[in-house]
What does this fold into?
Amino acid sequence: MAHGTVQAGLDQQTGVITWTFPDKTATAPARIVGGCNPSAASWLPAWANECILPDMNRDSRVVREWAQEHGHAGLTQPKVEVDQETAGSLAALALRIARATGFYRGTGSASIPIITFGPVTLTGESGDVSTFEIDIG
It folds into this structure.
């Protein structure tokens, strides 16, 4: 495997996240579940963020609906105080509830987006393509 920097990008218009490696590209359908602001120790769910397109916050809305049905009022709030560990737990919970393939912790200076994604398609330098999906039940 080649070594080097991995670049990631999310296109809200297409709903696709792309990771570019030196020897391959990985793409997957993606949704934003929220953003963690480490300096403010807060979590803003994607459904409460007007900057996120409605199609992109679907998994966040699924989590909110699940929380309402199961009596977890804290997960239905538009802003929650959290530390980094709790933000990771919220991302893992969103992964499970939305039945995603995985989640990705993006980069940001003020807010760090948490992105769930579906089946991943790998395309190698030679054009060979493979797709994988994980069923978390």
User: Anything to note?
Assistant: The two ends are 31 Å apart (CA to CA). The chain has two helices and nine strands. The mean pLDDT is 90. Strands lie at 7-11, 16-20, 24-37, 42-45, 80-81, 102-105, 112-117, 120-124, 129-132.
